User: Fold this.
Amino acid sequence: MKFIDEYCNVELSQRLVERIRHKSAREVRLMEFCGGHTHAILRYGIRQLLPPTVEMLSGPGCPVCVTANADLDKAIALSGLPGVILASFGDMLRIPGSYSSLQKAKAEGADIRIVYSAMDALRLARENPHRSIIFLGIGFEATAPTIAASILEAEGERIDNYYVFSIHKLCPPVIRALLQSGEVKLDGIVCPGHVSAIIGSQPYEFIAKEYGIACAVAGFEPLDILLSIDMLLAQIESGKPEVEIAYRRGVRPEGNLRAQEIMGQVFETCPATWRGIGEVPQSGLRLRQEYQRFDTEKAFYVDPGPPREARGCLCGDILRGVKWPSDCRLFGQVCTPEHPVGPCMVSSEGSCAAYYQYQSHEAALSK
Amino acid sequence: MCLAIPAKVLSIEGYQAEAEIAGVTRQISLRLTPEVKVGDWVLLHTGYAINVIDEDAAKETLKLLEEMCEVY
Assistant:
């Protein structure tokens, strides 16, 4: 596919790896924030290709994984209300909540529909005027504008049975929270590609300026990721951290201004609770006063009971980058993609799912 | 979740467009990218074009990569 195949060029990748090996003088610790990057790094065997001096840690960039159990429990409870159709992206269905999952609720009779897009959820509202359609608004800055756009569309068409349960989260505030905690020492961050297509590279400037940490926004093909690592090493070596874009075909420094405008028109920031990290100020999005008639929180009340965490599950520590999936005693034993205990084993962007899927691949490469 | 794939815009009607994604044609929304023209490539995420792909930047990045790797 155009814009993908060119960036998977094997010969160029090998030469870039050589260059990185040659360049890497001292031990550095980099974090790939985005779960999409974690999967690409493992899938292409990039971890093994890098010199031993370059350590790559996975970050909390998986919206499904960082959803707090309290929010997931609420979504499950909402799906059980009479007259409700709960529409969700497919990734959320198998995530275990405190007591159940959306998939179990569906099996028990709740009307839960998997949608590919907010447009599909809106179509459900048009086709079912006597039902209440609750769309589970999950995702980072790449996704939130699409949900904001669907709300504007519902407003324009005077659709009055469409509601959004907004548990969106924002990336720069959680990066700040991670750095402020001091729990993980980092030299560089591979910044998310598609979140940055919306917000641009400027919101990461504080990372370089205040924390002296190198930043590079990366795409998702092997050459994109290797280029970002090369950029990070050069910044670290020169002692001049900044924010570079290794994904210029998809990301402009200012981002997508129209999408930012739509997102800001519909949503305002609020505190949000992240699994494993806790409450992070200004890291969530809720509907503005003018759009509250679309807000699930205002239209429905549910009490799913106090949230519980699965015993022994290390997803929270893994999301903060302080533990590896292999540190978890449940990993690959009790917790597998077929029978997941924690969200990181379920989501297509979860670290545990990636390590599980490619572990034989990893073992083979490291021999 | 934050995955996006390149799609080529074939026709536009208001905020709706038809786009080709790896040989498959589907309806997409241009609400977030009203500047898109027929023939443009966009990054498609959950049915919405979230950005126009900058073809010049794509070529420049490949050229940069080749230059960087010349001595290795």
Notes: Residues 211 and 360 of chain A are 37 Å apart (CA to CA).
